[in-house]
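#data-curation
PF: Archiving a pair of folding outputs for the training set. Convention for this channel: one message per protein, sequence first, structure tokens after, nothing in between. First:
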Amino acid sequence: ALPGRQVASMVNQTLVLADDPALDNPTKFVGEVYTRQQADDLTDQRGWTLKPDGPHWRRVVGSPQPQRVIETRLIRTLLHTGAIVICAGGGGVPVIRNTHGRLQGIEAVIDKDLTAATLAEHLEADALLILTDVDGVQEGFGTPAARRVDRATPSSLRAMNLPAGSMGPKVEAVCRFVELTGDMAAIGRLEDAIGIIEGESGTIVTPGGNYGGPDDIRPPVPDRTTN
């Protein structure tokens, strides 16, 4: 698709806070399924927290807020060379700073959309696109009156009642990026990426809810010539 471009794929560590409340309230299912008896045994033997998942039981871990991708500087260096960087997969490997100031891995799952927003902010990205398999955020999702939201502000999206396990994290990610940077973010289909930048597809989020196209991402340099 992009002949001549260098592509770097990285496994990243994502820093979280050791006292993040989410670590004391595990909600993310991981691993295989167990019977109730097996779940009780694992709780006693390993100190795991297990919860019902349909007819079975599964382990749950915390989902703390990402603070920073540890390799941000390296990613920036690669970007400056013109490389395409594939990174922060799965939200990254969760780490904390221990009492000695060293990185230490923890058992957790970080939301990948929130990690993307955090990385985009720290890289001073021009825009954040959350590309998925739906054409955007929909009002009345699952009903005959469903309608895609074409333009939105963070406050208008936050006011919508969205599923916590699917669209909710994506909306939180784009809202956070727009609120912290004042730049554009969007949610849409992978195949519509160019259309989103052109302002023709997806749900596009800006501070004022307006977006006219690529010039709104990178405004033209003003003409400073004098006679």
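PF: Second:
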Amino acid sequence: RDATGLADYAGFIDSIVAQSAERSRWQELAWRDDLTSLRNRRFFEQALHELLDRALRERLRVTVVLFDIDDFKHYNDRFGHETGDGLLREVATLLTRCSRESDFVARYGGDEFVVVLWDAEKPRVPGSQHPHDVFALADRFRTAISEHSFRCLGKQAPGPVTLSGGLACFPWDGKTAAELMRAADEALLRA
């Protein structure tokens, strides 16, 4: 009798674990961009709100950088949407490679990407600081993009792929996610 009860209990626990795993899988799918496999805007907005709450409590620095691919429509029009999709995937990979594991990179929409840098860990290079200047940060990403040979464009590439970026820092440029994104978007438009 005890063995039967334990078997039933084990079956019940297995069912709960399976349901939890399935829920986690669906949550992960809901937070991923299908095309680039980056986190999507839904995840980004929730994560940024949570991070800013933590930053306020712990006095952390948070930097938001909004990027878009210059003349992206030209790539779609000239080479087709499949090539444009390939370009988005390759840019997503490069932005991820240029970021620390604790930072997060998301596809914000269309050809826009957002990178959030924060004080989660010690700097990769001793003495390095959060960027205070859009040019210093953008140069790291720009170099990675300009030196990359985009497979999706092949030999018919019309020249180097370029990005424009806008940077905003918490708490100086905004104290809320909406204020930070507005500041980053304004900086992007100026770029």
